[in-house]
Amino acid sequence: MTSRTGFFVLSGVLALVALLCVGEGVQLIATGKPLGIGMGLCAFVIPVVGLWFLRQTVRFGRDSERLARELEAEGGLPVDELKRTDGGRIDRASADAVFARRKAEAEAAPGDWRVFFRLAVAYADAGDVPRARRTMQHAIRLHRTTATTGTTITKPARSNA
């Protein structure tokens, strides 16, 4: 299953759960008892949180794809230079070498969203998905800042590496 297919399946499940929560919330409120009303109101919060999370995920994916298209048009997408095992897995030493190079590029140009995009890809290749996501979010913020104001941010992404 591709990640896009998985996303749509999980989005459908989230919509179904949201409908069930709202239905249960209405039934609990209809009891007229204070505890039922309180629990019913809480049942309305679950879909709101789920839909907010879904919105954030869609926005992140859309923004990441937009940056990738722009970088591809510039000819700046990272080239897959990683060595792989016979089973197709990325060689750890190869990923570490590429990561070190990408991190040095990001430290040298802290206001360039392009280097942070490539650093996020290197984090993902190294298997560090949370840092990859944070770094991609930083690249998106840098892109928004440079696109709207024409200036750059000099504060680099927070990293524990």
3D architecture notes:
With 161 residues, the protein is an all-alpha fold. It is 75% helix and 0% strand. It has 5 helices and no strands. It has helices spanning 3-30, 34-74, 92-108, 113-125, 129-149. Helix 2 (34-74) packs across helix 5 (129-149), helix 3 (92-108) packs antiparallel against helix 4 and helix 4 (113-125) runs antiparallel to helix 5 (129-149). The longest helix has 41 residues, at 34-74. It is elongated, with a radius of gyration of 21 Å. Mean pLDDT is 87; it is low at 152-157.
**β-strand amount:** under 5%
**What average pLDDT do the residues reach?**
87
Tally of helical runs: 5
Parts with pLDDT < 50 across at least 5 consecutive residues: 152-157
Please give the radius of gyration in angstroms. 21 Å
Describe the sheet with the most strands.
Answer: none
Oligomeric form of this entry? single chain
End-to-end separation: 32 Å
What is the element string, with H for helices and E for strands? Answer: HHHHH
Estimate the helix proportion, in percent. over 70%
Shape: elongated
Write down how many β-strands occur, each being a DSSP E stretch of 2 or more residues.
Answer: 0
Q: What structural class do you assign from the helix and strand content?
A: mainly alpha
